[in-house]
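Re: [ENG-882] Designed sequences occasionally contain unexpected residues at chain ends

Forwarding the minimal case from QA. Structure tokens:
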């Protein structure tokens, strides 16, 4: 999925840090379901949905709710009129959100690519860039966090939180006598 943002700049929410190198983007987006949220802090529909989306995102990624964060990343594509409106909106959202910088020309390309006519729109993508759901707003409103499992299965994500069998064999021993104790 990082290929969609190759050569582009994403901002880490609230810190104003840029996530722009291939390696940083790869780490942030690889093997994850990507949500592209086209919205505005000023739109009444968006305000209502944003509260729901914030709760949805936190329930899947915050350690308070889950033991392990879900393989999920969200990129906010602002439809706000000013940069201050975008900053104000993002301050009220989770820190883990990424955002396209205000005024970035790539925003228009994404709007055309995913046929965004009105907001809010939440596009759900596989790690390879294929669309899972063109607009998941209604799905999230109806199912809540339960819909993520369907997306995860559709995306065929590899759970990297567990060691594969071949990785287990390569683990270093705790001591020289460890193999003898195992016998």
């Amino acid at each position: 999925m990082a290929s969609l943002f190759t050569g582009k700049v994403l901002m880490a929410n609230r810190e104003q840090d840029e996530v722009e190198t291939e390696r940083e983007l790869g780490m942030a987006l690889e093997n994850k379901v990507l949500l592209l949220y086209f919205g505005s802090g000023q739109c009444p529909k968006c305000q209502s949905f944003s509260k729901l989306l914030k709760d949805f995102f936190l329930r899947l990624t915050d350690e308070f709710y889950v033991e392990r964060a879900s393989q999920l990343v969200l990129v906010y594509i602002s439809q706000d009129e000013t940069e201050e409106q975008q900053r104000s909106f993002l301050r009220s959202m989770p820190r883990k959100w990424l955002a396209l910088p205000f005024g970035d020309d790539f925003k228009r390309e994404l709007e055309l690519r995913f046929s965004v006519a009105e907001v809010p729109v939440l596009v759900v993508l596989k790690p390879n860039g294929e669309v899972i759901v063109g607009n998941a707003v209604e799905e999230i409103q109806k199912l809540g966090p339960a819909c993520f499992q369907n997306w995860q299965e559709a995306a065929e994500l590899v759970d990297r939180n567990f060691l594969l069998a071949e990785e287990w064999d390569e683990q270093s021993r705790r001591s020289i006598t460890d193999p003898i104790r195992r016998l």
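QA comment: On inspection the terminal residues look reasonable. Confidence is low (pLDDT under 50) at residues 162-170. Proposing we downgrade this to a documentation issue.
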